[in-house]
């Protein structure tokens, strides 16, 4: 497996999982289901491994990928899912002197099958989904038992697929639901332990969300670096051009969609929701102004506007003259000058600053040095059920 | 010219300029020498244009590239440099309603020739250089006169190449030197007006600096996204691997250099200076610790260390036990956890956060939303001589 496949954006990993399902190809899906201590990736990180040794995605910073690949052949031969835990903290030193990662990492390995299909279809179709997988416990849900690896799905309102294994027990579902709802909303994953028939069951709860949407208005050459960088960090990207002739998919081959529209038709050019981020960079004052007005009518939380602050103030004055005075809340949604203050003025450096701002806003972060920030690097999610400390 | 050529990192543009010089190929060099108001790119932005219409680099957000390309043929035919000014603010509206950029942009177009060779060789050889070009004035330095386009070079101590045109006048050099020194230090460019023989001469002063150096310690797959992103924003990148067998240039094809070293030999593995930034991500506690110790002996202003804060504190305790207590100033140079707080945990998202921090530190910026920052987007340089408001 090359580093290129290892570092693929999550959407591309899902594309490869879907391709394997479509082809009914033999493959193993490996998913991090629990992390104790610090690790490069969080629960929910996944990779697909094929019998020829190739694969896509990552579960650690390269520390476990070789071992997981070696196990994948066994999993395919057995046809059974299994859970493996690696303690990378070392025996004598809690910080992993001799090995790569620092933490106890638990991975679910399973022959890729149709039970993961609903997750893939939702993720690639633009819908969030929750998935609950039985990954341990006593008796009927322990490794090797028929219910091990059974799945139920969560759509924000309730579970489906509940006929299988532990999920046929209404008490189990009731206990899982608050945690599942939280993880579904946050797009996070966690293994929890629930009571069943006096024993315990470990269930991996994964909230899978589609990537955030980026809509870029513009058709100049400066759009391409923004698209390229946004795709690398896994936005779904639509380019909206008001100059049909100049745009076109061949100019923005990395965009998911290239739309030709009129400024006044912005509201119908895309689906607008709260996980959609708009960047306005037509370099045309009038087009920018109309796009801005239209975008304010949508629920998008972020409107980045290229150009200096004075230009925006001029725009506001014109709007006010037309009887359209922006509220404080509307101004809060508009980021101009666009981007984070990182310095540099080349096309990629400008694009970099824009996409850095998009990431911070989409992930609800205050841009600052992590070294100056209190708390863990990754946000932790507090879930209703007790997180299992050791899912094995 | 494709958007890919348009958005090339500056080093790649210089590579193409050198290739044209080496091949003695016909080409026009276009350089932004003055900007009034706001523009996508700053003075010093440049592109090379070839007779077949191809080119590399950018001078605006695509607003002037077509016009400049059209002029390039004339410039080649004439064999003479010329200066063109575009007022993109529009006649009736100061914000450029109908056109792309907002500003008055002045561009020097010249047949690419050996007078630019010293600049190219310095930039690509890793040395800063200043270059002064006569771009206007009265009498002997006006457009079309023999001294128009004449050059002198600045090495941080004084001018060379001073036999030509206006630069043979010691008073002119004395007047230019403070501004040149400031622009040389800051890597900025500006057109200034100086007195000569009772008249005035306009001189474009360009401080050209090599890209900042990034040295990444590590050989895991997570190194590749950092290298790729850092190259896009124009760092010169060296990967240092402590595991010779695993590294190698084929694994990091985008790196400028891949070095195999022992942790204790870090000080000799590269040239270390104040424009070099180190990222330590071996994922091995002992290797990281030794690299850290060695890097603290170099003048690098930034040492990014991957891993959680606790891991660094553990490292500090071990160092203290060995009698090596870090000073407050040393701790200030170490950024851990590495990166800006942008959220996300995929390999590219982690790499993005790291390179964003590198940009902010290299450009001396406090990471924050530009919309929340006072002052202009681009840092302005105060130079000794009066900047010319209209170099034409």
UniProtKB/TrEMBL annotation, chains A, B:
Residues 369-392 are annotated as: Disordered. InterPro entries: MoCofactor_Util/Proc, XdhC_CoxI, XdhC_Rossmann_dom. It comes from the Archaea. Residues 214-358 form the XdhC Rossmann domain. Residues 22-86 form the XdhC- CoxI domain. Pfam families: XdhC_C, XdhC_CoxI. This is XdhC family protein.
